[in-house]
Design goal:
- Helix content is 43%, strand content 17%.
- With 205 residues, the protein is α/β, with parallel strands linked by helices.
- A six-stranded mixed β-sheet has the order 5-6-4-3-7-8, sandwiched between helices. A two-stranded antiparallel sheet has the order 1-2.
- Helix 1 crosses helix 3 (35-47), helix 1 (5-18) packs across helix 4 (67-81) and helix 5 packs across helix 6 (117-126).
- The two termini are 31 Å apart.
Length: 205
């Protein structure tokens, strides 16, 4: 059972993301909270512009995350996962899966986008795979290298990049969309823990 406002809000946003036709009762049951509290949080999320509520037949309601709701869900998820070992364990598993996918596609020259705690775990995990990390893209840092890997301000500074993995934690959605402007979307890889929306049709504007 979530025990604070941020956890309950994240739980509500996750429930709506997974199923637009959730009910107040199903949200309450999933989160282990009282029905009245679930109702209050749904109304609060709507008031904050995080979700849209639409009436559908049979006097039922459909709930949709707004772009602001997606951004808040990402922020809360990152905040939650950053709390210690859980973050490391999940990140390590995700990067192992991503690197395995890269190997299966023959993508050996891989870059990271975002110098962060997530990038550090990505670097550690890369040593266990047949992957060459050719650079880390981060326009805001003054560092020129990290763990022996060049740090560059944009993708154009790197040669023969097969794929890029988003490791930006402040605004991973923006990083993903920016990279998709210069690379095919299937070559911009995103750990699911960052909650990046790969298809804008997934949310309501």
């Amino acid at each position: 059972m979530p025990d604070n406002e941020s956890e309950i809000t994240l739980g509500v946003l996750n429930a709506i993301h997974e199923n637009a036709q959730v009910t107040q009762r199903s949200v309450a049951s999933e989160l282990g909270i009282a029905l009245g509290l679930a109702n209050a949080y749904l109304k609060r999320c709507a008031k904050k512009g995080l979700i849209k509520i639409q009436q559908i037949p049979a006097n039922r309601y459909a709930y949709y995350l707004t772009p602001q709701g997606f951004a808040e869900k990402t922020r809360l998820t990152t905040e939650y996962l950053s709390q210690g070992f859980l973050f490391f364990r999940l990140a390590r598993t995700e990067f192992s899966d991503i690197y395995t996918e890269c190997q299966s596609r023959g993508w050996r020259r891989v870059a990271l986008a975002g110098l962060s705690d997530l990038a550090e775990i990505a670097v550690l995990c890369a040593a266990e795979h047949d992957i060459e990390l050719i650079g880390i893209i981060d326009e805001e840092t003054e560092k020129q290298s990290f763990a022996g890997i060049p740090v560059v301000p944009d993708l154009s500074r790197l040669e023969r990049t097969n794929a890029v993995i988003v490791t930006e934690m402040e605004d991973p959605q923006a990083a993903f969309e920016r990279l998709c402007g210069v690379l095919p979307a299937d070559r911009v890889l995103t750990p699911s823990m960052l909650n990046v929306t790969r298809d804008k049709q997934d949310y309501q504007t």
